[in-house]
Amino acid sequence: MTLSTARLQAILTEITDIARASESRGKVADYIPELACIDPAQFAIALARPGKPTLVAGDASVPFSIQSVSKVFMLALALGKLGDRLWSRVGREPSGQAFDSLFLLEPERGRPRNPFINAGAIVTTDAVLEGSSPREALGSLLRFIRAAANDDDIHMNERVAQSEIATGHRNFALAHYLLSHGNLANTPDLTLGTYFHQCAVEMTPMQLANAGLFLVGGKDAPRLVSAQRIRRINALMMTCGHYDGSGDYAYRVGLPGKSGVGGGILSIVPGIASVAVWSPGLNHYGNSKLGTEAMERFAKMTGWSVFGPTRAAR
Amino acid sequence: MTLSTARLQAILTEITDIARASESRGKVADYIPELACIDPAQFAIALARPGKPTLVAGDASVPFSIQSVSKVFMLALALGKLGDRLWSRVGREPSGQAFDSLFLLEPERGRPRNPFINAGAIVTTDAVLEGSSPREALGSLLRFIRAAANDDDIHMNERVAQSEIATGHRNFALAHYLLSHGNLANTPDLTLGTYFHQCAVEMTPMQLANAGLFLVGGKDAPRLVSAQRIRRINALMMTCGHYDGSGDYAYRVGLPGKSGVGGGILSIVPGIASVAVWSPGLNHYGNSKLGTEAMERFAKMTGWSVFGPTRAAR
Amino acid sequence: MTLSTARLQAILTEITDIARASESRGKVADYIPELACIDPAQFAIALARPGKPTLVAGDASVPFSIQSVSKVFMLALALGKLGDRLWSRVGREPSGQAFDSLFLLEPERGRPRNPFINAGAIVTTDAVLEGSSPREALGSLLRFIRAAANDDDIHMNERVAQSEIATGHRNFALAHYLLSHGNLANTPDLTLGTYFHQCAVEMTPMQLANAGLFLVGGKDAPRLVSAQRIRRINALMMTCGHYDGSGDYAYRVGLPGKSGVGGGILSIVPGIASVAVWSPGLNHYGNSKLGTEAMERFAKMTGWSVFGPTRAAR
Amino acid sequence: MTLSTARLQAILTEITDIARASESRGKVADYIPELACIDPAQFAIALARPGKPTLVAGDASVPFSIQSVSKVFMLALALGKLGDRLWSRVGREPSGQAFDSLFLLEPERGRPRNPFINAGAIVTTDAVLEGSSPREALGSLLRFIRAAANDDDIHMNERVAQSEIATGHRNFALAHYLLSHGNLANTPDLTLGTYFHQCAVEMTPMQLANAGLFLVGGKDAPRLVSAQRIRRINALMMTCGHYDGSGDYAYRVGLPGKSGVGGGILSIVPGIASVAVWSPGLNHYGNSKLGTEAMERFAKMTGWSVFGPTRAAR
């Protein structure tokens, strides 16, 4: 049973109504000064399908800082540039620790567990800088995202980037520690300058849903990476995309997803759709609180899950 | 594109031929004396589909000790008995540690990370013993497995159970430690006696594939648990089923799976099939070496993955 | 300046008066049921000097459970029996973890950090059982303590031992874990039966001070171990005798010491005296709260410290 | 029995002869480029006593980089400036981890275990910078050391400091991490610039022995800190002065000591003497290999130990 566009739109609207009525919205990230002042009352959900119009509900035209969701695009870029060489520098296992943890880096000798925790994303960014200047690397990233979203109006917010450069002490600690293990090829300043700009990409929920289409696959989807790479990136999003809350997201939502402290979550329904949800308040894992709840409701209402037979029944 | 039975059979045969020719077979688990003497040259793969004949290749009629694969059935039983109450005692996150680790139990105050590491499976077993004797609990488990496999000729190997009772010191350490945190309701002897018998279930690869059908779902599959629970168990298998190698399995195979130190792996293709593979030699995570390689090849040859659009194209 | 007996007696009395007036007495250990009912209002201090009468103040004739203070005597016995062979099984470094922690045992492969944390003391006890029955080993221990104290009226409290056997789950976890690493030669039941009886030795504060004289050294002290061994045991008491509070005790008191959850502390002033203090309430390290404060006051009032020149000025 | 000057000189000479004949000299620290080229064949020992001539043997007039031995002087300075306020920012417990570890900083929320591991020394340096410029703080440190040694010819090696600034990535990681927890008041560049200059102090073994006299105490010793502070600094040297080898040093040598990766060790015999030993090759803890062995021999030959009654017998 394929869900009709009308039914899907009704689902998005109902989810938005419920989210807007929620009284427990989580806490906006305040460690990045530029993000601390975002209005926590905002909520949006957007659904993109290959070859069909994108559906939205809520504040879907408000640009927000995608933050760590950008790690998905940077990973795609890194794999395109380096292929499996990337895995000599970063692992593919869930870390079971907070997004900015450096606890495991010592016993594991400077090799981050996966590309979606901060340490691993810094290594990925550093790898993309191989033979490229920060300007070139960030240009490649923006071009990739714009091509994925089929939308040239996507930019980086320089004030957010500068805000993080000024206050991202833990990321500097990670970069210097990686360097001490020989797992950083550039200076911390150079790599983190690039990393913070990558995190400062701003998109509307609608743009983000569209940008996720390259991970949906199928004949009408944008062909930016191979089918095998789609599967692998989705696998990493499933096991590592929500830090130490990844298991819970898989259990409750059942779709690959990547969150960011800006309150955005990008989830993929392989072969069917890309979903972006945004609400700035975070739960204790640092993932969007209402966004996670909305995705759980979305999965339940659509019956879409990679772990069940529901699609076979469509 | 649906794969024909003939094509699937050809895939299983080719995988078996390649596995049999492999010269690097891993190391048979030697910490359970009764398992140490298994012939490492054995290999089998079996594929069960709802409403269709089960396909096999290799030593698919040889019973082997399913060991930790039994944790999937025990979890299903525990969720049936306790529902979400189970999660007050055990988490749903990958642990990033070895299967028998107790490292994280101290900082996390005796609450195991998930039901598939030993500590978590001991808690799950202990929970199933609520209001039941070991005999009753093990009887329920066997009935569940036999019903799932539609096969009454499935038994526990008493010698294997006794061998583990005599040598499973680390599991005793885990049980006593859980008890010290109040997360064991029965004595370590009672709970572990049950736990070791559960691990001592023997099945042929063909039986195991059949027993996995209840997690495939769809209208022709056995209805032992709800569609929601199917999705949730598969989610846990995906994020936690291979211990600290779960991320790698998701990346390489892309299907929910649960391994056991007996060399068995059960993987689910939601809506389509249940696959059992068996080869006694283990890799350094304690998962079947050739079994993992075979499943990676299987996923590639069939194009089956929960993370890609291939099913939509069938 | 040697302190006169009268001056020392006055110091003990003043310390006792202050302790008795204290309103913050810590919390009696409640995880051993037999110890949970001890009256926390009790306090005593006793000072033994080679060749001179022992001085006491407070409840110095009340027998109490010396618990982990017994590890000092067991270590002396183990070194006498095994010499440096003991160090192949246990280390000599402070652990920085709680007395009953098993956190470090996993990364350090079953070799406890030192003989004064529970894990290390279990190994030490196990080592003393080499070629001896528990009865013989415990007989040797009692003989050693009685000889040290020059007092035959020192016994084990069977009810305390049984209470710990029934409830010491964490110690059972430690013993089974040690066994899983091959660092236990006997069954957990046998070694822990011995270990718990050793912890159940009861002494009065006066007896304990006397029993410590063998670590004071000098020509009038009991010669139970060599001068080199005295120094080494005192070194271990200094760096490891108060678990993760050892550094603080060294800083505040400046004397080697060993605490027990029964509320006793034995401290050594090398060449001069042995001091026992007892008060059942514990601080958050599991060391006697008033006992630690009393020893800090004692060190200040006597000027005795291994870290200062005060003795040179006597 | 007081050891005569002639006997002490004979001991120093014998120890030097044995050290020079040793074939296993450890490995010179190579992570600081300026130190990597030091000749490992060098060895010296120097003994300073209050009011008596300093005795030396070996290369006792060769200046070397005292590195972490400087932490003793900086701690004295910090305690003089801040008193017990310092302890709100750094602990007093052995860490059980390597000198440059950041493992424990995460669970312990940015409060280093003690002032002698790198993280703790960085905090101590940062504290001394309160209300002072780096130039002033380093001036105070040099004045303190020169006064202690009664020798104005003690300097910092600017090339060593610059070498560490250029390569001390792990220390930068520590500083940024401390900053992220609010436990750094200055920028990492400012604090580490000061820290690295402090480590770059050069002294001859003879000067270092003299500089240690302020920790010996007694009426003829320099009065730079109070008797209580002497005891406390010595206590910290005993429990934390050799990182995760502190317990072993206490056991084998029995004297408070502080090592540096330049191969120097300063040990104190309270009330009697200050001993400096230097040999560039390090053991696996990062402490001077021959230096540690020499101190063990020295303690044995002199009978000097804080843990034994030997001084009472002098």
From TrEMBL, chains A, B, C, D:
Which InterPro entries does the UniProt record give? Beta-lactam/transpept-like, Glutaminase
Q: Name one GO molecular function term.
A: glutaminase activity
**What EC number(s) has UniProt assigned to this enzyme?**
3.5.1.2
Asked whether the UniProt record includes Heme among its keywords, one would answer: no
Its assembly, as annotated, is: Homotetramer.
Protein family: Belongs to the glutaminase family.
Name of the protein described by the UniProt record: Glutaminase
What organism, scientifically named, is this protein from? Answer: Roseovarius lutimaris
Q: List the lineage, top down.
A: Bacteria, Pseudomonadati, Pseudomonadota, Alphaproteobacteria, Rhodobacterales
